[in-house]
Amino acid sequence: IGAICKRENPHDAVVFHPKHAGKTLSSLPEKSVIGTSSLRRAAQLKRKFPRLQFKDIRGNLNTRLKKLDDKEDFSALVLAAAGLRRMGWGSRIGQILSPVDCLYAVGQGALAVEVRAKDQEILEMVSVLHDEETVLRCITERAFMKHLEGGCSVPVAVSTLLKDGQLYLTGAVYSLDGSDALQETMQKNVNFSLENEDGPDDNLQHVGITARSVPRLAQEAAERLGQEVADLLLSKGAKQILSVARQLSS
Predict the structure, then answer these.
(1) Which of 35, 81, 121, 220 has the smallest number of Cβ neighbours within 10 A?
(2) PANTHER family recorded for this chain (predicted)?
(3) What's the pLDDT tens digit per position in 130-155?
(4) Residue 126: which domain range?
């Protein structure tokens, strides 16, 4: 990854069937069916809204919206807010889910530029596209998932915030039905300057990201933060939760 642009809204959004316009998940009738293809979303929302039902839904965005609107099978869909807005469907968003309701996926809402790893000229060219806050948030999120050996086949979720030079990471793992959950929040100082560093290392990467315009010490701190939150969850039994989830989802 040679560049990561400024992040869009990373949160999940709810699109409601027209007959439920103006509602929220908490105000839907009991046993309303919510469509999502994400294990992460389903696990969290089952835990938060046990009176609702969650059903897998597949297809591209247009296909899913058609399934929602043309039939009575689903009361709502849960999708990435960034994806809806980029495809011109922002007006369909009926509710944005805060991290209290649903932590988001690693890197959600962030657009990356992929480059050949040793193409120094192109890496230098695209480095101006980096958004430092987004880079640091994505590094810590990716380090968290990598250290857990997570992926799309297990419910792993995050939320990050950069404020006053402090990077905050909330990381969580869930069982598929949401009955088991582990969540922790930690923070680390990332307030460093390029002025105090030697020239950029052409071969330096942090969890697959080359970011020459972002202070190396800040990147290292962000990566350590992700690893430390993962280690804390692993010490509390995250490996067992994810192992069972992986077996059940395969």
Answers:
(1) 121
(2) PORPHOBILINOGEN DEAMINASE
(3) 999 999 999 999 999 999 988 778 99
(4) 3-7+106-248
